[in-house]
Specification:
CATH architecture: 3-Layer(aba) Sandwich
Strand content: 25-35%
Number of strands: 7
Number of helices: 3
Largest sheet: 7 strands, mixed
Distance between the termini: 20 Å
Helix content: 25-40%
Shape: globular
Radius of gyration: 15 Å
CATH topology: Aminopeptidase
Strand order of the largest sheet: 2-3-4-5-6-1-7
Order of helices and strands: EHEEEEHEHE
Number of domains: 1
CATH superfamily: Gcn5-related N-acetyltransferase (GNAT)
Structural class: alpha+beta
């Protein structure tokens, strides 16, 4: 697991603020990348941002995370094949880090494929020390 500490500005998780930030992100995707992105929220607090009707699976954008215990757990970040290495992933992660801090979350936690470890380290994430269970 990897984690990134973010500068918290208060109490974690004000839904109205989260919704406003999500709408801003969707608008950014529309204007900056030309994507139509939909927002879905599940009962367990998971937020899914996904491209609407991608032409193919290779063109799908998918960004899924949930909040829990003062942290954001990033579950998936899938960038369309033709948009990789163009700053899209960095823009998404920077948005999440800024949003997390603004909304009072202490850290972002994720698991990574070995091939993506360098990206996460470049984005300020480090290997999270495992806590021993007794």
């Amino acid at each position: 697991m990897f984690k990134c500490r973010v500068g918290s500005l208060g109490k974690a998780g004000v839904d109205g603020d989260v919704d406003a930030r999500l709408e801003e992100f969707v608008e950014c995707c529309r204007h900056r990348f030309g994507w139509e992105v939909k927002i879905e929220k599940t009962p367990d607090g998971t937020v899914i941002l996904a491209s609407e009707q991608p032409a193919s699976p290779e063109e799908e954008f998918y960004f899924r995370f949930r909040t829990e215990d003062g942290a954001i757990f990033l579950a998936n970040l899938k960038i369309p094949a033709g948009k990789r290495r163009q700053g899209v992933g960095s823009a998404c992660v920077n948005w999440l880090k800024e949003t997390a801090g603004d909304l009072g979350f202490a850290e972002i936690i994720l698991e990574s494929y070995p091939s993506a470890v360098g990206f996460w380290e470049k984005m300020g994430f480090s290997l999270k020390e495992e806590e021993e269970e007794f």
